[in-house]
Amino acid sequence: MTEMFVQLKLGDQRYKSKTLCKSANPQWQERFDFHYFSDRMGILEIEVWGKDSKKHEERLGTCKVDISALPLKQVNCLELPLESCLGALIMSITLTPCTGVSISDLCVCPLADPSERKQIYQRYCFQNSLKDMKDIGILQVKVLKAVDLLAADFSGKSDPFCLLELGNDRLQTHTIYKNLNPEWNKVFTFPIKDIHDVLEVTVFDEDGDKPPDFLGKVAIPLLSIRDGQQNCYVLKNKDLEQAFKGVIYLEMDLIYNPVKASIRTFTPREKRLVEDSRKLSKKILSRDADRVKRLTMAIWNTIQFLKSCFQWESTLRSTIAFVVFLVTVWNFELYMVPLALLLLFVYNFIRPMKGKISNIQDSQEIADIEEEEDEDDKESEKKGLIERLYMVQDIVSTVQNILEEIASFGERIKNTFNWTVPFLSLLACLILTVATITLYLVPLRYIILIWGINKFTKKLRNPYSIDNNELLDFLSRVPSDVQKVCNGWSPPTGTPTLRSGHPQSWSSTRLYYCE
């Protein structure tokens, strides 16, 4: 065994830790959030797995924790001996009561009560910005109806129901039988843990004991929600890349505290529950390679532009560049770096059209890839080459994922400056303004000294603190070009609104190390 990872399971909720090189004392330093309902059995099952160089996996040891036996509202640091092997797993588990999800009928809509609406506004007002930092806001979704759905049964009808997902929270409507124009008229309430989450609404056809048939899906970024307005959304395919058949009518209200949401932006995103691995696609691989190539070409063109200035290919351009260089270097102060980035935000705010044009081009490219993918799927069914070459698939999938990560990273930086998500761009402007003023007033040595003291003493102050990079956490909230097209991102308008749900318990698990 050359690598190790840990799997955690509570009911049907599953997480997988990152994979580390095998050692006697591996340290994961990861956090996972589970939903734990006090009226159900709460056995947290933990498995330590090893993986060899040929990707063969073997279970090394297991242990269990009875969540119901742990006290609430305190950190429980546990040393759990592993069964069937030597060693122990060090974890901390915290049970925190929280506001849960809820479902109600349209006739008893929670926000219809003015007193309750006022209480919720008060709960998320500016004065309460530093209270209960995890309680960012509330989302209320009215699922009204769908029209002209795809007929999934031989009778020419469908048995549709609707599944709503926000992060790891999932709720669904009841099923309406033999109907292509169902009216659910249900109200769903979700607690908001990250304002940059995307609400996914999927329509399925109930098919008895068989898995339900897919009828369409929409994805709605929380920051694009227009409060209190009834909206009609065209259903899309599973990858959200092409229009499907039918539309769905939703009405949403959102209340959140901007200060809490801004602070949450600079912390790690909640990990998604373990899902099926993404299939290999040569078209997606080609698309990701093209995305990386475009970013590389943009950097290359910038370098060539600078070289042309040095070589005086254009006298006017080189003269202007030389004067700007002399003035900048002679008068340079460190605070000018965030100030220059701030000016870039202003420039792109004034000229936003270029990004919209590229959006349309990206959308067209994704549609073309989807059509070609369908053809590839048919060919793969006949040939079965992927199954026979699973080793090659694993390597190519890794390359595909690396290319996508590189492309997404560059596109997220670009989209931050392009005002794709105004909330994030405004937040970045605020941070850069503070950085400019700080660097102008405070000597650099003091800033480095404070930063170094904080880094050196962090583990001394909190031995179980989980390291994170605030800049990368911020960029993880910015959509890439593909996510912009799939999620149909548009700037938000209107004012927020919502309601609290039923109380439940929240299990927060931190996995530290094994020895």
By DSSP, the count of extended strands is 18
Q: How many H/I helices?
A: 12
Q: What is the CA–CA distance across the termini?
A: 16 Å
Shape: globular
Indicate the radius of gyration in whole angstroms: 26 Å
Helix and strand element order: EEEEEEEEEHEEEEEEEEHHHHHHHHHHHE
Overall residue-averaged pLDDT value? 79
Unreliable stretches, pLDDT < 50, 5 or more residues? Answer: 490-515
> Which structural class best describes the helix and strand composition?
alpha+beta
Q: What percent of residues are in strands?
A: 25-35%
Biggest sheet statistics: 5 strands, antiparallel
Can you walk through the features of this model?
The protein has helices at residues 114-123, 258-265, 282-310, 315-331, 336-350, 353-383, 385-388, 390-417, 422-441, 444-461, 470-475, 481-487; strands at residues 3-10, 13-16, 20-21, 27-36, 43-51, 57-66, 75-81, 88-99, 102-105, 137-147, 160-166, 169-172, 183-192, 198-205, 213-221, 230-236, 243-256, 503-514. The protein is an alpha+beta fold and 515 residues long. Strands 1, 2, 3, 5 and 6 form a 5-stranded antiparallel β-sheet that branches. A hairpin with a 2-residue loop joins strand 1 (3-10) and strand 2. It starts with a strand and ends with a strand.
